[in-house]
Design brief:
Radius of gyration: 18 Å
Order of helices and strands: EHHEHHHHHHHHE
Strand order of the largest sheet: 1-2-3
Largest sheet: 3 strands, antiparallel
Bound molecules: 1,2,3,4,5,6-hexahydroxy-cyclohexane, fe (ii) ion
Structural class: mainly alpha
Number of helices: 10
Distance between the termini: 11 Å
Helix content: 25-40%
Number of domains: 1
Shape: globular
C-alpha cells in the first residue's frame, strides 16, 4: 500500500441519547432461507430490540442524521472523488478492513473483512455462475476504508449506516428518522419538499446520496475502470439505501435503468444482510478464487 496524502483527523463530538425508533418490514424472494435471528438472538434490523448494540447504533444515527447535509455531501464527494490518497489493490483493501467494526450495525460486531467474505460466499453458493456478483459481494463495503488514518480517519457517521438522498425531504421510513429534525436542511424550503432539487424520473445517478462507503466505493470502482456490469456498480452505490430497496420510498426519482438494476440489488441485499453471523470463513482457502476475480474485473493497483 502506498499512502500518497495524509489528511488531518476529522474531529467530531458524539453525544449519546436513548429514544425508541420505528422499524421497516421484510420483503423476501421465495427459496431463500432467512435465519430466524441474528447473532444476538434478535430479528435482523430491529433497531428497538434491547440488545447490547442498541444504544451505540442509535447514538450513531443521531449524529449521522444531524450532520449529513446537502453541502456536506457535495464537499465530501468533491474531496474524496479526487482519489489522491492511497494506491493499493482490492485485496490489500480487504485486509485493511480487518481492524474495523461497524457502529451502525445492530446485527454484526465482527471485523468487516469477515462480513465481506460471508456475503460473497453466500452469493456464490446460490448463484455459482454469476462471478461478477460474487466479486460485488466481496467489495461492496470496501469504502469503509475511509475510517482508516490514511484517509483522514473519518468518523463512523460519515462512512457507514443506511444512506438516503439529500436535497429533498427525508423519508419517514429512514431508521431513527426523528433525528433529522436537528439537520439544518430539515427546515430549508429548497431541500425539504418531496422533489427538492430533483425532478420526476431524473435517475438516481443525478441524486446526491448521504456520503459514505457506498458512494465512495462506486467512485473508486468507476474511476479505476472496472469492467463489472452496471448492476454491480448500482449495488455498490445503493446497497445501504434501505428506504428505496426495502421500504419502496423515492421511486419517483428512478429512471428505467434504475428499475432494472433494483432487481439485482434486492437479490444482493438478502445475502448482504442475512449472511451476518459468527461462522468464520477460511480466508486462505477462498483467497485464490477471489484473486482471480479481482484480476478479471480490476487493474492490479487502484487509486483510492
Ligand atoms: O449498518 C449497516 C452497515 O453500515 C452496512 O454496511 C450498510 O450497507 C447498511 O445499510 C447499514 O445498515
Ligand atoms: Fe454497506
Ligand atoms: Fe455489507
Amino acid at each position: 500500500m502506498t499512502i500518497l496524502v495524509d489528511d488531518p483527523a476529522f474531529g467530531v463530538e458524539i453525544e449519546e441519547k436513548k429514544v425508541a425508533c420505528e422499524e421497516s418490514e421484510l420483503v423476501l424472494d421465495a427459496g431463500f432461507a432467512v435465519p430466524d435471528s441474528n447473532a444476538f438472538g434478535h430479528t435482523f434490523r430491529d433497531y428497538d430490540a434491547e440488545s447490547e448494540r442498541r444504544d451505540l447504533v442509535e447514538g450513531f444515527y443521531r449524529v449521522n442524521h444531524i450532520n449529513q447535509t446537502y453541502d456536506f455531501v457535495k464537499r465530501m464527494r468533491e474531496e474524496y472523488g479526487k482519489l489522491n490518497r492511497v494506491e493499493m489493490s482490492i485485496w490489500e483493501c480487504c485486509e485493511l478492513l480487518n481492524e474495523f467494526v461497524d457502529e451502525s450495525d445492530p446485527d454484526l460486531d465482527e471485523p468487516q473483512t469477515e462480513h465481506l467474505l460471508q456475503t460473497a460466499e453466500a452469493i456464490r453458493k446460490d448463484y455459482p455462475n454469476e462471478d461478477w456478483l460474487h466479486l460485488t459481494g466481496l467489495i461492496h463495503d470496501l469504502g469503509k476504508v475511509l475510517l482508516h488514518p490514511a484517509f483522514g480517519e473519518l468518523p463512523q457517521w460519515a462512512v457507514v449506516g443506511d444512506t438516503y438522498p439529500v436535497g429533498c425531504a427525508f423519508d419517514g421510513s429512514i431508521v431513527h428518522h426523528k433525528y433529522f429534525k436537528e439537520n439544518p436542511d430539515y427546515n430549508n424550503p429548497a431541500y425539504n419538499t418531496k422533489y427538492g432539487v430533483y425532478s420526476e424520473g431524473c435517475g438516481l445517478d443525478n441524486v446526491l446520496m448521504s456520503f459514505g462507503h457506498d458512494d465512495y466505493m462506486y467512485l473508486v470502482a468507476k474511476d479505476n475502470k472496472t469492467t463489472l456490469p452496471s448492476a454491480g456498480l448500482f449495488i455498490m452505490r445503493y446497497h445501504s439505501f434501505y428506504a428505496l430497496h426495502r421500504a419502496g420510498a423515492y421511486r419517483h426519482l428512478m429512471n428505467e435503468e434504475d428499475v432494472e438494476n433494483l432487481k439485482w440489488l434486492k437479490t444482493f441485499n438478502k445475502y448482504d444482510l442475512y449472511s451476518k453471523s459468527k461462522v468464520r470463513i477460511d480466508v486462505e482457502e477462498v483467497k485464490p478464487y477471489y484473486l482471480s476475480l479481482i484480476e478479471k474485473y480490476f487493474p492490479a493497483k487502484l487509486r483510492w
